[in-house]
Structure formats: structure tokens, C-alpha cells
Amino acid sequence: MPPSDYSKLSRIELIERLKSLESRESAIPPSDVRQRLAGTELFDSEERLRAILDTAVEGIITIDERGTVESMNRAAEKLFGYDAPEVMGRNVSMLMPSPYREAHDGYLERYIQTGHARIIGIGREVVGLRKDGSQFPMELSVSEVRLAKRRLFTGFVRDITERKEAEKRLSYYAAIVESTEDAIVGKSLDGIINSWNRGAEALFGYAREEALGQPISMIIPEDRLGEEQAILTTIRQGLPIERFETIRRRKDGVLINVSVTISPIRSPDGKIIGASKVARNITDRKRAEARLASLAQTLAEKNRELETIVYIASHDLRSPLVNIQGFSRELSHACEGLRMRLSTEAPSDADRAEAQRLLRDDIPEALEYIQAGVTKIDSLLSGFLRYSRLGRVALKVEAIDMNELLTGIINAMEFQVKRDAVNLNVEPLPPSEGDATLISQVFANLLENAIKYRSPDRPCRIVVSGTANADATVYSVSDNGIGIAQEHQAKVFEIFHRLNPNHSEGDGLGLTITQRIMERHGGRIWIESAAGKGSTFFVSLPRAAQAQ
Question: How far apart are CA 522 and CA 443, in angstroms?
């Protein structure tokens, strides 16, 4: 084998070649005889030995059983910074930092005496000492060669600084991956999980041992399995997927919202071999966004209510104020006329008659209109106050016996029921949950409206019934009154809205307050009606806990 090819030998091949050649080294004559043996087999063996040592990539150092260096190849010279003559004949411990230096001779002696090896024939990672005093990590393996009565030890040394730095960086990155709260999952191109960090354990509920080797589909809901095929198709094209929001399933079956970033994993030669997925739990954020959307909707509704209130304040309050202002002037004029008629010591009969008319007609009329305006303003302001207070009252939620609640309401309305000859029938009602005081106000308002808007053409009939389903209890209050046309039904819950203000008295707040009470209970109220045929109001409330 040409000398230039020795660098391509493996470590095992080098050791075997050195053993075969070193076995002949003891037969090589002194230098004064070697010139005469040039070209002989022994001379060629020595030359081959030197070629192997000098062209090997690894540092090779040979020592005797006392630890004295007998040879050092060029790679070792470069590695330790010494020329071979500076080291040969000296103890090899000079190439070791403390505490290895102090322990070396004792270790070598124990091995010779006991045969117990710590490095010889085994190999290990140690620390080397260069001529300039710097230290470096190295991989050392030692082979033993017996020559007649001598023992030689050949050490193969490799600088592993770059490898140790790479391992350090890898360890650092691995620590980051393990310590992050985000789930980091590696998978093959066929969707098999091959890495699973602690964040993934916490997020998805599967231990690492449970996840490795399993298909990634185990955390994907069935209705979203198509997403995985699309993801793998994109990854195979070498394209990343950033900030993909979707739903995944935990081990316990709970569905969670996640934000996912997925990147291709490439081999050293650039081939795509898998995908790295970083997932973050955004369930709380989604809930917050949902709550924010509900608040935004509520705010929009409040703004609409405020606009309505402003309209009422500028319209409905303006009308009684105009009356008060106008009739106050009329009252002032009447009082002035009365004063003039009675200012003389002997008023004429005409003056007395006019004074009587003013006291009998004009002044009482003006006072009546002024009082009516004041009453209207007071009613509207009281309505504003009642409506605003409703949103601040704390709910006292409890199980409600609806049969008992309706009995109490009907007893309180007994006079109205008898006066208007109302046929009121309450069927057995299932229980529900809520604030009994406010729910009582809801049904009292619905019953009062059914009586108030009864038809003049037939006896008033009202039926209250209820049914329970899996999530809620739905009650209905049906009447055969004047009914509400389809185009007007959406407005009945608007604040201060009255479809027929001349039919009966009221401030138009009853159904608005009823709707607000239902909203606060997480329930709802709606209407089915036809003009001239009556109305049915439906009320949906949460089921009582014991009924579920």
C-alpha cells in the first residue's frame, strides 16, 4: 500500500497493521548496520511503519510500560504543539493536565500488576494539554503490543473540540425545547410522531412514551383529519405553515384551540425528512375574544338603547314640557286677567262674570294640563330609573317552583281577573333556576299585558304552560287578545315602545324590562302572534339542577 493511502485506514486497521509491523521492530539493527540492509524486508517494514504513523489522521503516540514516549506521529505533533524530539524520552503525562498527570503513572503500574484496564482496549474521553498550556477534549483509545519481554502501548488521539461544542449547542437547544411551555412535536412525512417535549405532554395530556411512534392523528378531531393531509402536502413542497389556528383534542377528549407553526425538517443533504410542529394553547384567548365579542355586542345594544333614550328625552319629554310651558303662560294670563277684573273697589257685573269664568274654566284647565305634563315626565323619568337599576341588581339564583310562583302572581291579580272576567288556566309547570323576584316580575308583566290587550269581541282567555328539554325549560303565556301584526313584532321589546298607546295606559317599559331580565339569566323571550287572533310569549330559562 502506498504511504499516501495509510490515512484512509480505519482505527482497527491501523492497530492491526501496527501490531504486525511492531512485532518486527525489535529485529531492526542499529543505524550503522541499517545502511547495509537497505532494501531488505526488515528495512521495508520500518519504512512502512513510519509511513503509517506519519500519514495517519489521528494522533498516534507510543509509550513503554514506564510511560516513556517512544514515538509520536505528525498528527500528534500538530495536536499537542510539540515536535516529536521534544516529547520522546519523556513521560507521556506531560501531555495531560492535572489531576490526570499525577494519576497516570499509578494507573499504568496498576494495570501492569493487576491487568485491570480503564482505558486500554476500551477508550474514553479525556483532556489533553498543549505546549502553550491550553487544554482540549480528546478521545483516547489505547492498544497494547507485547514484543518479547517488552510491552508497548499505542495511543490513538482525536481532537473532539468541535464535537463537544456541537454537543453543547445541541444540549442547549434541547434544554430550550424541553423547558418551553409550547408543545414542540416532530413527525415523519407519513405523520408518525418521533419527538414529543414536555410542553406537548402538558398541552395534549399524553406522556412521551405514549406519543412516540403513534400517528399525529391521535390529537386531531375526526372532522379535521383533512387538515393533516394538506399540511403534509405543503411540508413535502418545502414550505412552512405559520400561525395556523385550529382545534386539537387532548387525551381526555377535551377540545382545545391551538395556534400552530409547522416547518420542514431537512437531512444534512437537504432532503425533507419530516416536520417540526410548535403548538400553543389559545383556548383562553379564544374565550376572551368571544367574551369581548359578547361585550361589543352588548355595548352596541347599549348604544342603541342610549340613542332611543336620547330620542325619547328629546321627543316624549319635549311634548309635556311644551304643554307645561304653554299652559303656564295661559295660567299667567288668566291670573293677570283675574287681577285686573278684581282690582277695582266695585267691580262691574261683567268683571265679576269674567272672573268667575276664569276661575271656573281657564285656570282649572291650565292646571290640569300642567299636572298631566308633570305626571308624564315623572312617569318617563321613573321608567328610566327602573330600567337603569335593573342592570345593577345582583341576581339571587335558586331553584324555582314555578307552580308556586304563578299561584302567588295570580292571587295578587285576583281583582283584575274577576273584574275583566278572565278565563286563566295554568297547567302543571316544570321547575327552573333564576332569581324568583325578577322571574315573578316577568310573568306578572306577561299576564297583565294579556289582560290589558284583550279583545273587545270575545271573553279573555289565557293559558300558561311549560316543557323541559335537555338544556332549558320553556314556558309559554298564550292569549286570544288583539294580537300583533308580523311587521310590528320586532319592536315590542324596544324601550318605551307602545304599538297602541290609545288602547291602554302604560309607559312602554314592561316588555323591555322583561327582556333585560331574561338576558341577565342567560335565557331569552320571543313572541308568536297574529293580528286579531292573539299572542303567545315564550320564556326560556335554565333547568333546575335537580331536574337535570
Answer: 17
